Amino acid sequence: MFGFDGMSVPIVGAPMAGGTSTPELTAAVSAAGGLGMYGAAYLTGDRLAAVIAEIRALTDAPFGINLFVPEKTEFDAAAFADYRARLLPLADRLGVDLPQTVEYSDDHFDEKIDALIDARVDVASFTFGCPSPTIVERLHRAGIAVSGTVTDVAEARLARDAGVDSVCAQGYSAGGHRATFSIAGEDPRIDTADLTARIRDAVDLPVIAAGGVRSRDDVRTLLAAGAQAVQVGTLLLRCPEAGTRRAHRDALVDPRFVETITTRAYSGRLARGLVNTFISEHSDAAPAIYPQVNTLTGGIRRAAADDPEVINLWAGAGFRAAQAIPAADVVASLAP
To answer: Is 15 contained in some domain?
Structure first.
């Protein structure tokens, strides 16, 4: 239908990098008839190869791997230093030494492309931009379907021109990092159903709709808007197979946390999460510097792993619908 074989349910499990994606979660979504996607950001090529092997040991069903497309921008040392100074009191309280500066990293991108090709994964998807047509062609020659995550029609056209097989239309209500192609760019802030319909009208590609899904009715609405499949992430956060931290799981049902917003406070890139003390205090000051700000705050997040007022609580607008049930049950509950 859109380059993904073996799906019996039009549900894609969102890639959630940084530990939330696990081989078990990816395999469980695929085994339930959907398509499990593993978020492979922050891994080396060797580690990704090992993860792919782990998923294949758990299921024979197709699955996909998602990578962040690197974007190297001019490093604003002054803005970085100002933000570091702002975080020092919290870091001192937690016993964390903040780096004076952070070198740019492309997140082992080329290594991971090689790992995908060597392993002949079923699907490769991309966020924060689109890979070059040369990379897309290399993946195609290995029999790998390619999907690009987009937040507006212009990005969808760029992905189409690069040769992708499908696009994931990430609406504004989606949790976690926004997929905007530019680190410092403005968010188009388009509702998922509207974005899906606009992209279907603009490019002749299958569309996976993502963002704000709470129920089977939402899935039906997005399919009616023109999507071939619907991607869910927040609904999987409380599943036993997910690697979600305990403090994060609990916050999703904690009455103290009542809304989500987008912020650069943790990584320098826009991302949607539950409003907590860290977001409230630092969002207005956070510079658009990625991945260096993400590395800067990493020590703080690790030291405060049990404190929901400090760690990033990525979640979409429909976070209250997340249940502590197996991933297979989530997929079944959404089947149209």
So the answer is: yes
In a domain, 160, yes or no: yes
Tokens of 285: 């000051």
Report which DSSP code applies to 236: G
| 66/182 same-domain check | yes
Domain tally for the chain?
2
Please tell me whether residues 100 and 8 are part of one structural domain: no
Q: Give dist(CA 290, CA 287) in Å, integer.
A: 9
Residues of the domain holding 308: 74-104+253-314
Cα four-point dihedral sign 246, 250, 256, 260: positive
259-293: pLDDT as tens digits: 999 999 999 999 999 999 999 999 999 999 999 99
Question: DSSP of 146-182, one letter per residue?
Answer: EEEEESSHHHHHHHHHHT-SEEEEE-TT--EE---SS
Residue range 90-121, pLDDT digits in tens? 999 999 999 999 999 999 999 999 999 999 99
